[in-house]
Amino acid sequence: MVIERILIFLLALIGFTAIVGAKNIIKKVFGLNILNAAVVLLYILEGSRIGDQAPILGEGITNMVDPVPQALMLTAIVIGVCVTALALALAVRLYKATGSLEIDTISERLRSEH
Amino acid sequence: MTFLLLSMILALGSFALLSKDLLHSVIALSALSMLSALMFTILKAPDVAITEAAVGAGVSTIIFVWAIRHTRRRSKD
Amino acid sequence: MSIESLFLSPVYLPMLGAALILVTKHFFTDRQRRAVEYLSALIAFIIPLIAFIFLIKPVLEHHQVHMILGTWETTLGIHYHFDGLSFLLIMINLLVSIPVWLYSRKTGPHQETFTIIFLIQSASIAATSLTADLFNLFVCLEVMGVTSYVLVASSEKNKAILSSFTYLIFSATAMVFFLIGTFGLYRISGSLAYDTIAQAKNLLSGSDLLVARLSLVLIVVSVLLRTAVIPLSGWLVGAHSNAPHAVSALLSGVLIKIPLFALVRLLLLVTGTELLGSILAWAGGISTLLGILLALREHHTKRLLAYSSVSQIGYVVTAYGLALASGLETEEGALLLALALLYAFSHALAKATLFMTVGRACDAVGSKDLHVARGALSALRAQGERFPITGIAYLVAFLSISALPPTIGFWGKNSLVYLSKGHGANYLLSITSVFTIVAYLKLSGIFLPRKNQETQHVEPSSTALTSLSLIFLTLLLLAGGFWYTDLQTFVVQVLSPLGATNATLTSYSALQDLLKTGLTTTIALLLFFIGSKTRLERYFEARRESTASFPNLFFGFALMVAVMAWWLLFPGGAL
Amino acid sequence: MKRTLFIIKITFTLLVLALAILPVILSSHPWPEASRDYLYEHALTDTGAVNTVSSIYLGYRAMDTLGETLVLLVSITGTMGILINLGRESEEEEAVSFSLAPEKRPTNAQRTHLLEVVSSKLGPVVLLFGFYVMLYGHISPGGGFQGGVIVASAIVFLALGTETQTKLTNTNVLGRIEALSFLVLIIAATSGVFFESGFFGNPIKSGSSLSANFIILLNIIIGLKVGTSIAVMCIAMMGGRRGH
User: What pTM value is reported for the model?
Assistant: First the structure.
């Protein structure tokens, strides 16, 4: 129903706020992870409205769920994790270079260093 | 049932982003992954549930803990 | 060898090459790995180029191929569409990737995985220009994105790591909005193929039409982000200026153009995109002027080139927007699209050459600061470059990008500006042409002789491959200039099946504009001397480099979404 | 002043994007059932897979899965590149209790018994379960990616144990398996082009009973590729040098 979608919308909003507003770069990667999870939840929740059985063909399966969003979300989850892994490797490298995780101090220290 | 799970996921998400200690956030995030995997099983999406559990809770937790090991646990905001 | 295996070759051959290098990396010694790298580069670039030469004839006969990957008989499969547009896009990619890869052998990043990622990026570029399926476009853009983040970060400069991180977070978030847009369109159409979505969308009304258009806006803006039009271009300067020279050449040359033209297939089928076109035209015009003004304030060579990329892509986006505004089916629209593509090609060549030559010169001189770097020619000669190929290549690229006679840029830019006469953005384009010449005169300072020429002896190193790639690009720039009319007829002919029946080639030829070019150049020279004499420019110069902060980046993203969403309230109202 | 500008910018961004995605999320258009009905009838005959989700992401839309494997390969190569020169710089103060490198491993007194039990007893069970999920992907839920990730976590379990250092946890061997499986995947994908059934087509399209094998083959290759590359990354992250 609509209330679930509003909750998913709020989850996406929180993730997006963290990406834009958080000072700590690892918090930004958390936000990206949560935003990704929210969209996956949205696809699967809406995809499962039209049926009430798992998309595995077998006897007695008459009204199965829409498998297309599920197949798409398999790809989206793995891509999300790969991008998170790369972002965290970059974040650790930035910490090693500048000694801080706050985005402002990082860009400040890097700007002065030529 | 899904409403209950979604509100718990929302609570875990906001806790993860507000907590000062990054390790607590990582634990909250992997709990969030587990809950969304549970929700996928309820929504009749077993494939996505296994992926979310194995990839979301498993691998990304390892990566997050490694990242925090190499940087700092406390965050200012 | 069916036609399908021919036009798919630039997708699977680079992947095969990458797999071969990966295997040799683990099983054989370094020497064999280097040999296999050259072999797989040959497979990945030269064979598709030959395959595409065979394809010229069918493409001229408007032989379009619309197929589902894997020959399933359902719209569930991934639709691939090969026609003139994808042919030209893949040709641009191949013609720029070969010299850039040769250049990177000597100067570029020397990690052993560089070629693997370079080939995978080339495969994803080909797949993006061929795909006619929304989710496959998402996956191809993600592959292109991840390869760009890793290539930018391969320069190991700490600033490059920061710009790669910023680009990653900004672009990954935009891709999530792309997914929400796909959710909206899949909901109304039940399929992910462009044509079924367009059919379903065109017969919608009321709130469903609002949702469909909003999803389209989300998709268009997240794809436009990679084309770095002004409100969305915060990430580009950091990424392109800190990346290694070969990577900046590829990013500025090819990577910012492919997503723009990959959208044509979707926007072609959807009705009511006139106002979207005018918005794009205005955004393009503003980003040309703003881009070049910001470039003038820079005293770091590669940042100046990156800002000029933002300005030059504005020309392409303006022509693209005007083509969209006048409807891609009309003759004028198809012609404008052909000119946008042609100018994108000429800018790709010129900007790749500029990044490579200026990069080499700055490395030879040892500094990238415009006030300090001088005497590049003698430094290069000391490095064993007997024939000053870098200087000549820079000169030809300079002529092309400032639209001066013998090169492709002169013909391309003037016909583009001529055809955009009717629209307000035209004035912006003409003003920018003047400032472009001033900016590049300022950049040419690094080739002036240094006063106290202390010749520090540097061991001469073989520059065969680098010179080969620069010669290849210079010849392309000059050849494009000499045979411009045939090139333009070919492109218009190839693109015309998109819309018009027989697009009449305009009687306009850039020669009429010699007077206008002469005027622009004299004004530019005048401005340049006034500026340098009175140290005026020092006053304008950016005190500190502005790194793109996340609130500004996302503010630009939201601004673009707001402006485009405004199209929903006034559908069809021309701007 | 700078602070208020910062707040204004963020609220504007949030407001506009919230308003942009809200109608799309809350749209009341009924969910399309055309593709679900088509799959209900044709999935088994077309691709031979009982699990319709596998028939989509390995049959109809196999190109997305290839793109996904490329994203995985590129991002792990990039991460490894950054890790290797990270290792060089911070040789000394690496997190001791978390490292695998033999000389840095805590003495037996500090090591809890739990780690020994998990790695030596549980590791092989998880490995077996991972291969099960991978091989039965087209019948029961699961498949290449999920099986691969479970195999990866099993390999990490084995790598943590002291006396379970088998060939399987040697990063050189894992790297070779990964490279070979990627090469076989590309050859399997392009083989369709030359057998008229098109890119990612099923070259052995003869009887429907045979066509399931193509999905099983793809599942195995992708499973091995994903498993080994994630295992190599996790082992490298935990400080295990090459070929330790």
Answer: 0.92
